[in-house]
Amino acid sequence: MKRKQLVDELSARTGFYKHNIDTMLDALDDVIVENMSTATKDEPSEIRLSLGFALGGRYSPKHEVRDPRTGEKVMTPAKYIPYAKFSPAFRKKINKK
Judging by beta carbons within 10 Å of its beta carbon (0-12, 13-18, 19+), is residue 95 exposed, middle or buried? Predict the structure, then answer.
């Protein structure tokens, strides 16, 4: 589902104006990005949504790895790694038809 389709579906279900939903999705995107970028090596950040759906991010510091082609050691840059987790209840809800 693309963004426009999501906006149309949410507008139909809630009765809100499409431009309001679009603004809300922009704000949600900003909140998720800001939250994920606050992760540390010891404490990942996470946003829990609905019935067992969580978006999160963890921080991976700069470290040394091996290039599989050449075998030489290379330094990888520090980065944030996003992830999504689903609870068994969420999976059951999706598979219920």
Answer: exposed
